[in-house]
Each structure stands twice: as C-alpha cells, then as structure tokens.
C-alpha cells in the first residue's frame, strides 16, 4: 500500500515538473546588427558562443535600419557608426579599413594580372549601391582617389544592394570588390579572398557595442560580451 502511494506521488511530481518546464520561458539573448556584420562576421563565429553557452538561446535581428532595441525586446546592438553618431555608453569594438579584394584565381589570371592598382582598368569592379549617398568611403571612386588614381576607368561594373552579396560575387571570381576589415578577415585567412595590393583606405567610422539599459546586468549579456571581446582579441 505504501509503495503504491509513493508511486502515485512520484508520477504526479513528474507531471507537475514537466508542466513547469513548459511554462518556463527559455533564456533568450536578442542581438541587433547590420546584415553584412551578421552574415560575414557574427554568424560564422556564433557556433563557438553556443558551444560555451548551450543554455542560452540567441536571436539575431539583422537589418540595416537603426532599431529601438528596447521596443524590439533586444538586449544588444552592434553597429557601424561615425564618431559623431555614437550612442551614449557605447563600447568600441574595432575600426574598419577598406581595401581591394578578389578571388585567388582572378588575382593570378595571366590574361589580366593584378600586380598594381592600375591593373584594375582591365577588371570588373563590384559596387554596393548607396541610395542615400552617405557611405562614400565604400565607393570605388573614393578609394581610387585616395591612392591617386581618380581617373581610372574599369572594364565594367556590377552593382549589388547588399554587401554580403557583393563579397560572394568576389569569392566566385566575378570581379574585384572593396573588402572591409574586419568583415573579410576570416575569408582572407581561409584563402577564399586575397588582397592583391598593399594600399588601404581607413574609413571614417568603427563598430560599436551598445547594451540596452534594462539588460546591462543580465548574466547572459555579460557572457556574450565577454566572448565577443575575447573573439575580437583572437582575430587581431
């Protein structure tokens, strides 16, 4: 009789615990960032964070629009910004450099060698559209002017609406793009892209980390920030 009573109690406890588990919300870390940063930097490295913190669910909201992260129930924003537009209490992640990149096969093509920037006149240049005209440091005209080749005219051009699309075209050997360090650093190390010239044009902004005020003391936010800065230190 005692055994039967105990068995019934245990079964009821199991049912109750299962119900509580279903009602308990998962630990969710919300991150807002640009499409290019998410595609080329964050997502390829995110598995390393998940391995260290498998109990933290991650929500990545990738958009080029500036979001109100509190209203969108997000914890962290990673954004590229000019110094005069930096949100208060932001933390600097890294500055950005812009330089020419292409596929290894295109770089070593004997019919169209890429030994000097003047060789770009025989190449297809890959462009990212800037409808607002606010990102002149991503334009070929700005980069060429910075190295004294403002009059250079390429063989042709292909334009893209998103930066990660343009980089995929460069990897596929469809032309020469302007690479953004740190976004293309992993691809350079893997050999998917090469930088044929030594000239670099430092852009006018940097990447910053901003934490929503209500999320600043969350352990999950602290864990992500610790991992992020460690990852940046390793990459540098």
Q: For the largest sheet, list the strands in their spatial order.
A: 2-1-3-8-4-7
Q: What is the number of helices? A: 7
What gap, in angstroms, lies between the N and C termini? 69 Å
Give a count of the beta strands, DSSP E runs of length 2 or more: 8
Radius of gyration: 24 Å
Shape: elongated
Order of helices and strands: HEHEEEHEHEHEHEH
What percentage of amino acids are in beta strands? 15-25%
Q: Could you give a short account of the major beta sheet?
A: 6 strands, mixed
Secondary-structure content class: alpha/beta
**Residue windows where pLDDT falls under 50 for at least 5 positions:** none
Task: Please give the structural blueprint.
Blueprint: H1 2-23, E1 28-33, H2 35-52, E2 57-62, E3 76-81, E4 91-101, H3 104-107, E5 124-128, H4 140-146, E6 156-160, H5 163-171, E7 177-181, H6 185-190, E8 201-211, H7 219-235
Parallel strand pairs: 1-2, 1-3, 5-6
Antiparallel strand pairs: 3-8, 4-7, 4-8
Short description:
This protein is of the alpha/beta class.
What does this structure look like?
The chain has 236 residues and is of the alpha/beta class. The chain is 35% helix and 23% strand. It contains seven helices and eight strands. The strands form two sheets. It has a six-stranded mixed beta sheet with strand order 2-1-3-8-4-7. Strand 5, helix 4 and strand 6 form a beta-alpha-beta unit. It is elongated, with a radius of gyration of 24 Å. The protein starts with a helix and ends with a helix. 25% of the residues are buried.
């Amino acid at each position: 009789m005692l055994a039967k009573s105990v068995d019934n109690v245990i079964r009821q406890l199991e049912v109750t615990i299962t119900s509580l588990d279903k009602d308990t919300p998962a630990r969710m870390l919300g991150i807002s960032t640009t499409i290019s940063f998410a595609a080329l930097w964050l997502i390829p490295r995110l598995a390393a964070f998940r391995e260290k913190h498998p109990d933290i669910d991650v929500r990545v909201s990738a958009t080029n629009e500036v979001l109100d992260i509190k209203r969108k129930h997000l914890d962290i924003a990673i954004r590229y910004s000019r110094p005069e537009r930096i949100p208060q209490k932001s933390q600097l992640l890294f500055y950005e450099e812009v330089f020419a990149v292409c596929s290894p096969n295109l770089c070593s093509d004997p019919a169209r060698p890429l030994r000097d920037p003047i060789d770009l006149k025989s190449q297809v240049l890959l462009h990212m559209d800037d409808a607002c005209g606010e990102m002149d440091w991503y334009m070929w005209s700005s980069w060429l002017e910075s190295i004294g080749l403002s009059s250079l005219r390429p063989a042709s051009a292909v334009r893209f609406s998103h930066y990660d699309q343009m980089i995929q075209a460069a990897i596929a050997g469809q032309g020469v793009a302007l690479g953004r360090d740190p976004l293309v650093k992993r691809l350079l190390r893997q050999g998917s892209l090469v930088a044929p010239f030594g000239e670099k044009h430092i852009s006018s902004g940097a990447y910053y980390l901003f934490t929503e005020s209500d999320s600043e003391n969350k352990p999950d936010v602290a864990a992500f920030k610790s991992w992020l800065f460690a990852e940046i230190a390793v990459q540098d």
